[in-house]
Structure formats: C-alpha cells, structure tokens
Design goal:
With 259 residues, the chain is an alpha/beta fold. It is built from seven helices and nine strands.
Length: 259
C-alpha cells in the first residue's frame, strides 16, 4: 500500500509543478492593467465581509433538512464547483486590492488545482501570492479563519466553512470588518439553512452543457448591507473554459432570469 501523502508532501510536489507552470518565476510580476477583466462578467463585486457558497439544491427537502453529512458523503465531492467560482472571484479581488495574499484554509481536501491558480493569477507568482493552511481540527480551522480575516496582508480568505455555528459566523464577520478582508466560505448543502451573519449566500448547481467545459447555475440566496441591492429573481450561468495547451482559463458569465 502506498504511503499517504502529508500536507508537506503536497506542498513540495506543488512547488515543483508551479516551477513548470511558471518558467519565468524569477521575474517581476506583471502589473495589473484596469480593464483586463472579462467584459462578460455580470456577478457583482463582493464587499468586505464573509460570503458563503453552497453546492447543492436548497429547495430539496432531503438536503435542506439535514444538519449533518449523510453517511455516504465525501467531503471532496462538495468543493470543486464552488471552489472554482470562489477562486475566480478571489482573483478578481486580488487584482484590484492593495493587499498581497490569498489564504486557502481547509487542508488537502480543499486545495484548488494548480492549473486553476495559474489561470486566476496571470502574471503573479503563485508561491509568493498564496498561503495554504491545514488546521488539524475544526476548532483550529475556525480560529485560523478568524486570524487570517484580521490579517492586513490578506486580500481574500478562501476557506472551508463547514460546521460553522452562529458564534463562529459572528466572529468571522467582525474579524473581516477589522481586517478589511473579503472571506469566501464554502459550505456543504446540508448546512444551507444554518443561521449565519454572511453578507451574501450563493447556491451553485450543475447545468447542462454541450461542450467539454463545466457549467453551473449560480443563484444569489441572500444579500444584506453593505452590499447594494441585487435583484433576487436573477441567476447566472457560469462556464469555466480552460485551455490545457496554454494553461489559460476564463470564466464566462451570462445573466438569465430565474423562473
């Protein structure tokens, strides 16, 4: 049986892959040029505070009634879709932020792919822009999220927010206000009705597509101040287009009407 990889092993392997993805890693990062964003982007820009992302069906009573994961659930199965959208959102924020780092909190089950990182951070050196934290327990994860949200060097904190109660949500929201940081938290579908103080809540569901690129329905479930009002009857179609030949990725967003 092969030995289980430790988090340190993953980091070392990642560093080797990054060097291949970034042949000019020793050079200076390309400066951000206003207007580089995809003009089709219609998702609103997120303000300072915490924002929750769910992958699943909020209207499914079997899902929404759950307060603990079903026995057959695998944690990793809930993250990739929401994590892709959160990573893309984080990249947008980082490009316009005076702060330096993206913090990723959640361990090996919550790591974005290196190809996704390379796509959302064009011109930036991944090793110097991303900090990965693998807390050994849920209480340590709650504490780590709180501390990084208070960090003045953080542009965005992307974290596994599973299992958070109202006390943790309040703690995170206060920490984000102190640090001036945007926190993006992925949560599993059985926590869709859990009380929280998140400014926005987003639902991500798979959408049919005729291409090889993954596509999702994205719906805003709630929006509180200081975010400006957003029409609750809107939803978006998000398609992640990644070209493996040149390592470039693009998120295509289309606004549609929710029926």
């Amino acid at each position: 049986m092969a030995a289980k990889l430790t988090f340190a092993d993953v980091v070392q392997n990642s560093a080797r892959i990054i060097q291949k993805l970034e042949p000019h890693a020793s050079g200076e990062a390309a400066p951000y040029v206003p207007g580089e964003e995809n003009p089709s982007t219609d998702l609103p820009e997120l303000c300072v505070g915490i924002h929750e992302w769910f992958y699943g069906d909020a209207s499914d009573p079997k899902t929404s009634a759950l307060h603990t994961p079903p026995p057959q659930a695998r944690e990793r199965s809930w993250w990739p879709a929401a994590l892709t959208l959160m990573a893309w959102t984080a990249g947008r924020i980082l490009r316009q932020s005076e702060h330096t780092y993206l913090f990723w909190i959640g361990g090996t089950e919550f790591l974005p792919t290196l190809q996704l990182l390379a796509a959302i951070l064009p011109g930036h050196r991944l090793i110097e822009r991303c900090i990965f934290i693998d807390p050994p327990s849920q209480s340590d994860r709650i504490w780590a999220i709180d501390q990084t949200l208070r960090c003045s060097a953080a542009a965005v904190v992307i974290a596994n927010g599973a299992g958070a109660d109202m006390a943790a949500s309040r703690r995170w929201q206060l920490a984000a206000a102190v640090g001036g940081v945007c926190g993006l938290l992925a949560r599993p579908p059985w926590e869709i009705n859990a009380p929280c103080l998140a400014i926005t809540r987003w639902q991500v569901q798979p959408a049919p597509t005729s291409t090889n690129h993954p596509q999702w329905n994205v719906r805003l479930l709630r929006c509180k101040p200081p975010m400006p009002p957003i029409a609750p009857d809107n939803q978006w179609i998000a398609q992640w287009c990644y070209d493996s030949n040149n390592g470039q990725g693009e998120m295509k967003i289309q606004t549609v009407q929710w029926n």
